[in-house]
Amino acid sequence: MLWIVRCCLRLCVCALGCGVPSTPPQVSGLKIVNGQNAVSGSWPWQVSLQDTSGFHFCGGSLISQNWVVTAAHCLVTPGRHQVILSEHDRQFNAEPIQVKSISRAITHPYYNSQNFKNDVTLLKLSSPVQITSRVSSVCLASSSTSFPSGTRCVTTGWGKTGTTCEWPHNPAQCKQYWGQSRITDAMICAGGTTNCNVSTPAVSSRATYLRGWIGQTVASN
């Protein structure tokens, strides 16, 4: 199932006056692990990245009919991997999904796999998606956008729902843990790590910082 939280994580994709789904989402809670099942179809830009056997390994966001943004550490490979849209329950086979192959995977040229700086990859689809009530794109915030403290942002994806953990961490706590120099303006810290260690802040990419590269790459490809 999809789960959602109030923290802005992973690629920090937040809709600003656009990306409005046909089915209104319901948002509550504060966690990723032990989060909340989403209303089916209420996050129409959420995609599942799967191999050709149907194994789900990462998520992503549809930003146009031809492009998906995901994390570079997902290591997406055209031919081996595909984009699934309109999926909600991955154990239910009757959903009206769209399956798209990937023609190009373009990773940020300065992605650093050691500290995950510039952790972003753009996926160009082999053919445009069909926009429906369950499939539509999210609008990325501009490079100059700033989010006031307390702004509610939402993370969507597939994850554990049965473990109580993962509380947000503020930037000071994150820098104290990882080191002042390792946390840059391209990163956001919130939530715990995948092993539910709440004392270990997770580090994610900040989409506003990467927005210029995303726009230039889409325009030139």
Report the helical percentage. under 10%
Task: Please tell me what the overall shape is.
Answer: globular
The class by helix and strand makeup works out as mainly beta
Count of strand segments = 11
CATH classification class of the largest domain = Mainly Beta
Tell me the name of the CATH homologous superfamily of the largest domain.
Trypsin-like serine proteases
**Rg computed from alpha carbons, rounded to a whole number of angstroms:** 16 Å
Order of helices and strands: EEEEEEEEEHEEH
CATH fold-level name of the largest domain? Thrombin, subunit H
Strand content: 15-25%
CA-CA gap between termini: 33 Å
Average of pLDDT:
78
Major pleated sheet: 6 strands, antiparallel, barrel
Low-confidence stretches: 1-17
Number of domains: 2
The total of helices stands at 2
User: Strand order, biggest sheet?
Assistant: 3-4-5-8-7-6
The appropriate CATH architecture of the largest domain is Beta Barrel
Keywords: Digestion, Disulfide bond, Signal
GO molecular function: serine-type endopeptidase activity
Pfam families: Trypsin
Subcellular location: Secreted, Extracellular space
Describe the fold and architecture.
The chain has 221 residues and is mainly beta. The protein is built from two helices and eleven strands; from the N terminus they run βββββββββαββα. It is globular and about 50 Å long.
Structure characteristics:
221 residues; mainly beta; Thrombin, subunit H; three-stranded antiparallel beta sheet; globular; disordered N terminus; Peptidase_S1_PA_chymotrypsin; disulfide bond; Peptidase_S1A
